[in-house]
Write a structure and sequence with these properties.
single chain; 428 residues; alpha/beta; UDP-N-acetylmuramoyl-L-alanine:D-glutamate ligase; Protein-Tyrosine Phosphatase, Chain A; 8-stranded mixed sheet; 15 helices; 17 strands; globular
């Protein structure tokens, strides 16, 4: 199997859609020798902040000298981003080899396997064969029935902020969604949780206290102990908690300081469990962390940001970042959304800070059409233009920004982020 054949095979499986449940992944991993049981994990669930948190933790562990696996979803530029060791994406030939071996087992299963299950199994196989010391493992959807939840050796469960999303699978309230995510907590596994909603936090706290015979140790980061020191378009510096150490992160936005506090709390938990993580590794790891499409500055003339905000919580964080970094500037918003999201309320948030809109159709069968989105936004009296492609949309956004002395903010779907970043790699 070639790399191209491996991706084509995964693509054909994706047509089956998502089917929550652990039966298929258990069967698949049984056929692969349950190699995941050779590994140790930090398991991360949440609606927003999983990727940034995973990236920062992974970088710190690498700086501490551990061979560190990282499993994320979705990818932004190339599929290989989804599984990494020490910051290096899986090589094309190795991915092809691993997928072929996973396929051989999946083809014997009566019910087959979903795309995410295949990718998860491939990652477990690669991490185990490369003898990773620890794997930072991001859930795909929810937690309880997510394929990643087959793991046993969980050094720490981390739950980032929770919002209303994927209600057809996870529930209609924050409390219901919080329960689904709390189910990544294993017996004897400490928990670090950052959830802004009290009811959702109570669900996680109660699960940690009562799900097993011995309560799991539960930790919340102290956001009141974050001391911001400086912030500009290149990053931000802060102290946490009340120590003389100054940390710097390249990730922008107040919410990233909270994510960093989650990371630092998790590092303390890991140290308590015997992991040797020098303070120098923490400082260097945070400073090295970069995460694409998280209020990412792509161009300075005119200023262009791309953000992966694709739900209400995401666009609220984006609004706060715009207020903090772009106060007083006119905003041109390039946006496209998926039709199954709460996109009307998302647009209400975007309309609160953007003056002009250019709409596109993300590359997804679930996408809302650009013309429908444009018609919706036009009803509010905004300047709106529909573009036939992301490339055309960005060209129009740049032209409008130069005409009106504006800043471009692109958001609404991670499916757009790759094309937007490639646009600047190709044309600027």
């Amino acid at each position: 199997m070639t790399y191209e054949q491996a991706l084509a095979y995964i693509g054909t499986i994706s047509a089956r859609g998502s089917k929550p449940g652990l039966e298929r992944i258990r069967t698949l991993m049984d056929g692969l020798g349950n190699v995941q049981n050779k590994l140790k994990f930090i398991h991360i669930a949440g609606t927003n902040g999983k990727g940034s948190t995973s990236c920062m933790l992974s970088n710190i562990l690498i700086q501490a000298g551990y061979k560190t696996g990282l499993f994320i979803s979705p990818f932004i530029i190339r599929f290989n981003e989804r599984m990494q060791i020490n910051g290096e994406h899986i090589p094309d030939d190795k991915l092809a080899e691993i997928v072929e071996r996973v396929k051989a087992v999946a083809d014997t299963m009566p019910d087959g396997a979903t795309e995410f299950e295949l990718i998860t199994a491939a990652a477990f196989l690669w991490f185990a064969e490369e003898s990773c010391d620890i794997v930072v493992l991001e859930t795909g959807l929810g937690g309880r029935l997510d394929a990643t939840n087959i793991i046993e050796n969980n050094e720490c469960a981390v739950i980032t902020n929770i919002g209303i999303d994927h209600t057809d699978y996870l529930g209609n309230t924050l409390a219901e969604i919080a329960y689904e995510k709390a189910c990544i907590i294993k017996e004897g596994c400490p928990v670090v949780a950052y959830v802004s909603d009290k009811e959702a936090m109570d669900v996680i706290r109660n699960y940690a206290a009562a799900a097993y015979r011995q309560p799991c140790r539960y930790f919340e980061p102290r956001f009141d102990a974050i001391t911001p020191l400086s912030s500009d378009l290149t990053g931000q510096s802060f102290r946490y908690p009340h120590t003389p150490t100054e940390y710097h992160i390249r990730l922008l936005g107040e919410h990233q300081l909270r994510n960093a506090a989650v990371v630092l709390t998790t590092v303390d938990v890991l140290k308590d469990r015997g992991w040797k993580i020098p303070q120098e590794a923490v400082v260097k790891g945070l400073a090295a962390a970069q995460w694409p499409a998280r209020f990412e500055l792509l161009c300075k003339d005119p200023i262009v940001f791309v953000d992966g905000a694709h739900n209400m919580q995401g666009v609220e964080s984006l609004r706060k970042a715009v207020e903090d970094y772009l106060s007083g500037r006119r905003i041109v918003c390039l946006t496209g959304v998926l039709a199954d999201k709460d996109w009307q309320h998302m647009m209400t948030v975007l309309q609160s800070f953007a003056s002009d809109f250019i709409t596109v159709t993300p590359d997804s069968p679930r996408a809302l059409q650009n013309t429908e989105l444009a018609a919706y936004l036009s009803a509010d009296g905004k300047w709106v233009q529909a573009a036939d492609s992301v490339e055309q949309g960005m060209t129009l956004a740049l032209e409008r920004a130069k005409e009106t002395d504006s800043v471009v903010v692109a958001c609404g779907s991670l499916y757009m982020a790759s094309e937007i970043r490639e646009y600047f790699g190709r044309n600027v």
